[in-house]
Amino acid sequence: MFRTAELQRKLPKEDYHQQVPQLRQELLMMQMELRDAGFPVIVVFAGVDGAGKSETVNKLHEWMDSRWLITRAFGDPSDEERDRPEYWRFWRELPPNGRIGLFLSSWYSLPILDQVYGHTSLAEFDERLERIKTFEQTLANDGALILKFWMHLSKDAQKERLRKLEKSPLLHWQISKRDWRHWEMYDQFIAAAERTLMKTGTGLAPWKIVEGYDERYRSVTVATTLRDAIRFRLDEVKAGRGDGNSEATAHSSVPAVDPNGSARVTVLSHLDMSKTLAKDDYDASLKRYQAKLNQLQRSARDRKVSTLLMFEGWDAAGKGGSIRRITSALDARDYQVIQIAAPTDEEAAHNYLWRFWRHLPRAGHVTIYDRSWYGRVLVERIEGFARTREWQRAYAEINDFEAQLVESGIVLLKFWLHITPEEQLRRFQEREQIAYKAWKLTDEDWRNRERWASYELAVNDMVEHTSTRQAPWTLIEANDKRHTRIEVLRTLCERMEAALAGGSKSS
Q1: Pfam families of this UniProt entry (predicted)?
Q2: What is the C-alpha separation between 383 and 465, in angstroms, rounded?
Q3: Nearest to residue 431, comparing CAs of 445, 441, 417, 422?
């Protein structure tokens, strides 16, 4: 794979000075056009130590407008980053639409280092590469342009480069004992690199090997590749091909009846909506479960076990009331409630999962989402805000997201609160008569009732596709508020108790 990069390719100084002025002008003009194009550019630099990764990034900053470039380098995780899933620190640094993100020491660094140093088996290495591939696929499917450069040197060229830097009065600080140790492990690094490029190079996220011996050659090669790739995507967008505009965004059509004319049966059809709880039983259960929850959360905080609760359900189904019964049992310093509405401009400029990744709790804390990432397969599907292929692939994207949460040690609970149309109507009418509740009722709430059947079928698809062993759905009959609140508290306590009994992140 690396044979063609062993030639120590060079670009003569005359050719370099002839090409660079025009190249810089084209890069700047391209940046201006990119700002309004509606997609981000993600550029990953990996490769052999001393192959000029940092120097190339610095050169791009020199040639382009740095105000529209985002450069990030990831070293060993900080305490804050260790408190969260591995990919949290990568998601929060992704560039918004219109920007170019340049990533050094990216999501490839630790998997390769762990493999070379023997910290992971080959099977574990492949699993991590598969996660990388899924991560990049999710971003590319959403429109991100991904370019990946492997900056390469032969072993002899790397040795020459390290010695040259070591002797430089200005640059010798860049070379450490670790760099020479890695040079001695050159063959292991190349073996890991070849496997990485083979397994993660895709049509949507391709690798380009750049010989890094000559500074002029590598700088022009990277800049030219970047220019051509962005220009091609910009031309696609102009032609209506690169942003999916050719696909209709009409309302999702989900037949509410079977071919024989009867109403379709869904997972919600099997719930017993007559369940109630007497007030005396409710009061006693509320005190018992809130006390238990308080104890469990204090233990979870000490043992650095995070909890993430996610509430979905019909308008007026009691999500807010259930959340308040949880938070009143907790120390306000230990939890955060995130209410999800239409995305802000900043959020809309990123992948739809970005705003959920950024709010993940630190170890030992609780985050509660009032509405969630499932909006992609519910309201965005029904209202036509997401194209068909976008909400259809979201099931797999969500499953991967939730798997990462659970694998990191987060206790994840997903609640759907279900009420009947008749009970919802009664609650709507009640809200209209109570001043401090009237603000909750909107024209959109009334309009959503007209699509009840379509939403119920979308919920059925959501549960079927995303109720996994790691992250199952809990469907709760919510016609009776007392029953709802106790069921939520009981389920939460049972899941936290089981998680704490099974060990914690700090153990």
Answers
A1: PPK2 (PF03976)
A2: 20
A3: 441
E strand or H helix at 467 = none
Positions of E strands within 262-376: 307-313, 335-339, 366-370
What phi, psi does 471 have (nearest 5°)? -140, 75
Amino acid at 425: L
- Count how many Cα atoms sit within 13 Å of the Cα of residue 205 in the half-sphere of its side chain: 24
In the CATH hierarchy, which top-level class contains the domain 267-500?
alpha beta
- Domain residue extents for the chain: 3-238, 267-500
Say yes or no to pLDDT of 503 above 70: no
Give the model's confidence band at 323: pLDDT under 50 very low, under 70 low, under 90 confident, else very high.
very high
CB < 8 Å & 24+ apart, contacts of 490-497:
490/285, 490/289, 491/413, 491/415, 492/293, 492/307, 492/309, 492/326, 492/413, 493/289, 493/292, 493/293, 493/296, 495/411, 495/413, 496/293, 496/296, 496/297, 496/300, 496/305, 496/307, 496/411, 497/296
Under a CB-based contact definition with an 8 Å cutoff, are residues 83 and 304 in contact? yes
For every residue of 253-289, DSSP letters joined together read: ---SB-TTSSBPP-GGGGS-TT----HHHHHHHHHHH
Model confidence at 9, in pLDDT bands (50, 70, 90)? confident
The confidence score (pLDDT) of residue 177 equals 83
- Taking alpha carbons only, the member of 260, 292, 254, 272 closest to residue 486 is 292
Phi-psi region of 50 (alpha: psi -120 to 50; beta: other; left: phi over 0): left
pTM value is 0.90
Based on the number of CB atoms within 10 Å of its own CB, is 225 exposed (0-12), middle (13-18) or buried (19 or more)? middle
Rounded CA gap, 474 and 314, in Å?
14
CA distances in angstroms from 456 to 30, 446, 448, listed in the order given: 46, 16, 11
Closest C-alpha to 470, from 499, 506, 507: 499
Report the relative pairing of strands 69-73 and 100-104 from DSSP bridges: parallel
Separation CA 260–CA 240 (nearest Å): 41
Structure tokens at 393: 């692939």
Does domain 3-238 fall under CATH 3.10.20.740? My reply is: no
Tell me if domain 3-238 and domain 267-500 are identical in fold.
yes
